[in-house]
Specification:
The complex is a heterotrimer of chains A (about 250), B (about 260) and C (about 270). Chain B is mainly α and about 260 residues long. Chain B contains 11 helices and no strands. In chain B, helix 9 packs antiparallel against helix 11 (about 225-250). In chain C, helix 5 packs across helix 6 (about 135-160) and helix 8 packs parallel to helix 9. Chain C starts with a helix and ends in a 7-residue tail after the last helix. Chain C contains 10 helices and no strands. Helix content of chain C is about 80%, strand content about 0%. The chains are: A alpha/beta (about 250), B mainly alpha (about 260), C mainly alpha (about 270). Chains B and C meet through helix 1, helix 5, helix 6, helix 9 and helix 10 of B and helix 1, helix 4, helix 5, helix 8 and helix 9 of C.
Amino acid sequence: MGNEYKVQVNHLTKKFGNLLVLDDISFHVKENEFLCIVGPTGCGKTTFLNSLSKLYDITAGEILINGMPVDLKKHNVAYIFQEYSNMPWLTIRQNVEFGLRIKHRPEAEIREQTDYFLDMVGLTKFQDYYPDQLSASMLQRAAIARAFAVKPELLLMDEPYGQLDIELRFRLEDELIRLWREVGTTVIFITHNIEEAVYLSNRILVLTNKPTKIKEEIHNDLPRPRNIADPAFVELRRKVTDLIKWW
Amino acid sequence: MKKKIDVTRIIMGILAVVLFLCLWTLSTREGTTLGKLMPGPGEVFKRLLKMTHTNIGSLTIFGHMLNSLRRVLVGFFLASVCGILLGLGMGWNRKCEAILRPLFELIRPIPPLAWISLAIVWFGLGEGGKYFIIFVSGFANVTINVYSGAKAVDPEVIGAARMLGCPKHRIFTSVVLPSSIPYIFTGLQIAISSSWAAVVAAEMVRSTNGIGWMITAGQNINDMEQILAGIIVIGVVGFLLTTIMRGIEARLCAWSRV
Amino acid sequence: MNQNKNGTKDNKKYILMSICSVLVFLFIWELVTDVLGIFKSTMLPSPVKVFGTFIDKFTNTKPDGATIQVHTLASLKVALSGYLIGVGIGVPLGIAMAWFRKVDCFVTPLFDLLRPVPGIAWLPVLIVFFGIGLLSKAMVIFLSAFIACVINSYSGIKNTRMVHLWVGQTFGATRSQLLFKVAIPTALPMIFTGLKVALGASWNALIAAELLASTKGLGFMINQARGIYRPDIILVGMIAVGITGAILGYLIELLQKLVMKRGWRQ
């Protein structure tokens, strides 16, 4: 085994008091994979990701990165949250630098990485603005730049585009794919939007309702760049939709 | 899970208070230097019980407490009424604001307790001067909060009401007033605790009864038990006053809680 | 454009009204005192007289033994020593109470016992211990400032958003990095509110303390003037207290602008 898998999740179980939320979940993620996790609303997707990243204590099971138990101080992880998470007291540039400074990277690297990723998400012009001066999509892009700036080995994303309108979402999804390919990171991406999952992923995990388990695992080998009108795409989307059927 | 956290909290809290009382008892036991100056908690408590049925000066402790409370409530009531009226007036009407705001701003930086001497000159040693001091202590707090509340009303809501043909006085009663209520309560909340502090100070400076008088009288006869018993009563009443205010607020503006 | 012009014209009108209002106020005050004599000068001195006394007090040491500058400096010395210690202990303690669970569980109940007692009520106890010198008064002011600082710093830290802490945590931040890079910046506006509230409370407590026990200071001056029916000096004292307090408040405001950049303004 060893480094064959980037992330190994074994028998992950989480209870809040007596309420069982995550029920004995096991799966593995390969290096450089783009894994999407979809499930019905309120099925504990966020709990799932927060447990995975050790923000919540887990009740049972183990989570390994490179074969070692997750340690956020050792492993290079970044997390993009559903809510806006920019610090309102920092400029956009300082927000992007935040992770690098936490990790005490050398000053030259901080400057270089920040310049690069500000440019990648198209915020160079706005780097000295404060978050309350920018629009929702710009804020989320700043959060994305902040996450990529540390060159994470594992990137967790919790419905980062849930609150954006459809056109912006398309643009940011393409941007994300580009960054992912360029930086070469492993991504776990949570969404309730099936089309988004099919568009982005190499593999999709479909979750059940609470207590959450993995219902199905679907490989997604559609060639990139993908086209949402392509019959193969539509077919796969229908297949995933049938699996969830929360209505 | 939540319950468990509360239990440790309560245990730790009780432990802290018990430890504090032990430390107090130990450091004031007979023979220590501190012991000559300070009574222990047991003695203070006994004295407090005794005060409920014997007079200090002319009244029992309840009498003093009721006198102080009456002063606070009268002064606080006047301050609330005037503060709310002035705050709403300045927030709602620009002429009113232009005329009264500069006068208000002239008086505001003067600490309320600095009025004590003037109050004595004007009102003598009677109740009037004390009501006045408490009034001054509460008034500015209420006014400034109500004023900012009335100013913070969303102009779009007012615009919408106006567009629907709502007459001006109705906009005031059905838009401005309700949305100022949380601010009014913030003002009242601050005012009640500063009024309580003011009554204590005013009674300490000049009075013949009341809790504040009780502690200065204790100081004059070097009776530490009386001072500490008075401080405990001041703390308990202060706590009750703010708790009651908070309770009323929670009742009346549950909708404004975030 | 047109509307804008109207706006500035309006503003001018209101500023004029404000100026008139102050003038009318002073005029009526002068009218009922010096001119019509409705109030005797031992009750309410006229504004002219108060102004005269104010100027006179810069050089005249009678009747309270010192000029107004000396009194102001004496008051400032007491107030600032108490205030600075109160801030120096209160702010860190409030932060610690909000950040460390154990400190919160243990210290908060003790603080809640202290909190409802106004600082001035401790004066008799302190006088018994330390006499009526600077120390007793500084301690009263310390207590008043301390309570306000603890309350505001505490709730400032408690306002920290979970998601901001999570961002730090996933980047592998240590507890102290989370405190200094996330929680304290979040709390800063509240901490400054605390500093301002504490200043008001200190200044108020100082005056009361000086009324009760002192031989110098603005409160003492006011109290002496009451004894000899000189309300003009009382008013001069009140004005001096007000102006000094306003200047101190302005200095804190300035410090806040210096420390906090625009991002904090919501």
